[in-house]
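Researcher: I'd like a structural prediction for the single chain below. Treat it as a standalone chain; there are no partners to consider.
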Amino acid sequence: MSSDAVIPPRSQVDLSTHVVFRSSSDWKLTTEWATEAKSIQLGVYFARTLVSSTSIADVPVRVMNIKSQPVRIKAGTNLADLQPVVIDESAAVRSTSSTTEATSGVDNDVPEFIIDLDDNSHSSLSDSFRRTLTALLCSCGQW
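Model: Treating it as a single chain, here is the predicted structure.
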C-alpha cells in the first residue's frame, strides 16, 4: 500500500495496493498470480485476490474489519504473498453454459411473483444476473 488506510468498524473496503516482486524473473515467468485469504491481524481479514502480471499497480484488494473499532493499516504493510496460478478458462465456460441450460429449462415453471420480481428489478442488472437469480429463487422453494 502506498498510503495509510483506515478500515471502519464492521465493514469491508477495497484498498489500492501494488505488487512487489522479489526478482524480475518471478514476474516474467508467470502471467497470473493469486493471494490466499488470511487474517492480517486479529479481526481483520484479507480476501483471496487474483492478480495479473500486466497490472501490478493500483491492484484492488478486499479487506474486512469485524472489530467494533476502526483499524489502521500502515503504508508499506505486506498484506499477502503471491502464488503463481493457472487460470482454467474452460471451467468458466462450462459453468456459464450449465447455468444457461439450467435457467432456460426453468422458464416455464417460474412462479408469477418471481417473474414480477424480475420485471421490476433495477435496469442496471444484466440479463445473465437476472437468469441466475431466477434459477436460484426457483431452486429454493416448493412453489
